[in-house]
């Protein structure tokens, strides 16, 4: 029997990323794997057996059966982006809390439909941007907010690329226009945009312009792109995302007094520790042969991986609604919407050949 004190998760689909989240749910002290649903009962059964689902877990041959199970408290939705509106809305209507893979939708209009359904049904909504739940993110935020050590943010550059193999570039859902039409922009680009907004304390830019050199596959899906963002106060940010370059996931943020650098912001090099470097009032040595002072390294330890911390935070919010009558936390869906809104602007600029897009 599942622990009644834990949030009972159902998973919709057997996507590769669902393996990671299944482990995260198992590791979380507030959650338990309760059900898995796939369009194929055989596939769901195999997924459960190969991902350490408890013997008591329910195995269903449809997504609907998971949503119709009265004991499922929350669902994780790792389905292709084109299916998010349908299944996230149905989940909300069934009073299931929703942990939604990114990108949350194909555009902000679709996400607003999801958001409206969740608000009307009083369920928690959170996207699956795992790195924000690592304690390293909190420590970096403290540095960026320190007027004496970092000052005012002036510029930010972020990169998330990985060299996809031929099978991925031909067959993965992220290269299919009918499944994940945003391609790399919705995948690794989501993380870049989120990190930029995070550094800017989630203030939206005034304008967005796609950088030259966007690469599409033969189906018209974006394989590589970048953009520049500008705020009314003059700060700027750029990002580059690609399926065609070696694994890189870096952030460089420069302030009036300091700078921050991180080389593994989406997935840390090591699961239980993560580092970043900071510099304040940097300069050169007398003969310009080195830095003075040298940037300092900071390492943050964690007992649980960031994805389990995300599941735990989501489950904490769900428990407060379920047991204490609390209302759903609006912070997380607000951040999701802002990220999607900027993605939309980048996509519009790409579609218009690099025209500047003004955000309202």
UniProtKB/TrEMBL annotation:
Q: Which residues form the Gfo/Idh/MocA-like oxidoreductase N-terminal domain?
A: 7-126
Q: List the GO molecular function terms.
A: nucleotide binding
InterPro entries, per this entry? Gfo/Idh/MocA-like_OxRdtase_N (IPR000683), GFO_IDH_MocA-like_dom (IPR055170), NAD(P)-bd_dom_sf (IPR036291)
Pfam families named among the record's database cross-references: GFO_IDH_MocA, GFO_IDH_MocA_C3
In what residue span(s) does the GFO/IDH/MocA-like oxidoreductase domain sit? 146-260
Q: Which family does it belong to?
A: Belongs to the Gfo/Idh/MocA family.
Please report the name of this protein according to its UniProt entry: Oxidoreductase family protein
Q: Which organism is it from?
A: Artemisia annua (Sweet wormwood)
């Amino acid at each position: 029997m599942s622990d009644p004190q834990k949030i009972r998760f159902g998973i919709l689909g057997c996507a590769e990323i669902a393996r990671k989240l299944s482990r995260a749910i198992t590791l979380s002290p507030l959650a338990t794997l309760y059900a898995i649903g796939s369009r194929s009962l055989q596939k769901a059964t195999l997924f459960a057996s190969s991902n350490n689902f408890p013997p008591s877990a329910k195995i269903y041959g449809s997504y609907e059966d998971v949503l119709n199970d009265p004991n499922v408290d929350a669902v994780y939705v790792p389905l292709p982006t084109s299916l998010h509106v349908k299944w996230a809305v149905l989940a909300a209507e069934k009073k299931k809390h929703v942990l939604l893979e990114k990108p949350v939708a194909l555009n902000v209009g679709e996400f607003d439909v999801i958001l409206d359904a969740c608000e009307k049904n009083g369920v928690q909504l959170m996207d699956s941007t795992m790195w924000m739940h690592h304690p390293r993110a909190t420590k970096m935020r403290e540095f960026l907010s320190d007027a004496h050590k970092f000052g005012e943010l002036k510029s930010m550059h972020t990169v998330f690329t990985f060299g996809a193999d031929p099978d991925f570039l031909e067959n993965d859902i992220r290269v299919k226009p009918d499944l994940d039409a945003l391609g790399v922009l919705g995948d690794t680009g989501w993380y870049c945009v989120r990190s930029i907004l995070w550094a800017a304390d989630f203030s939206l830019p005034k304008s967005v312009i796609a950088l030259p050199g966007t690469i599409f596959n033969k189906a018209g899906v974006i394989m590589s792109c970048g953009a520049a963002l500008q705020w009314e106060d003059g700060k700027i940010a750029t990002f580059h995302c690609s399926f065609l370059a070696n694994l890189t996931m870096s952030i460089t943020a420069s302030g009036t007094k300091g700078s921050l650098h991180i080389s593994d912001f989406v997935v840390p090099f090591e699961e239980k520790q993560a580092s970043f470097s900071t510099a304040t009032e940097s300069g050169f040595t007398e003969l310009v042969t080195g830095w003075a002072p040298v940037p300092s390294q900071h390492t943050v330890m964690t007992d649980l991986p960031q994805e389990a911390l995300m599941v735990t935070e989501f489950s904490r919010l769900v428990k407060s609604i379920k047991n204490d009558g609390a209302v759903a936390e609006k912070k997380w869906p607000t951040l999701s919407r802002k990220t999607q809104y900027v993605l939309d602007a980048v996509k519009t600029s790409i579609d218009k050949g690099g025209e500047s897009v003004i955000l309202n």
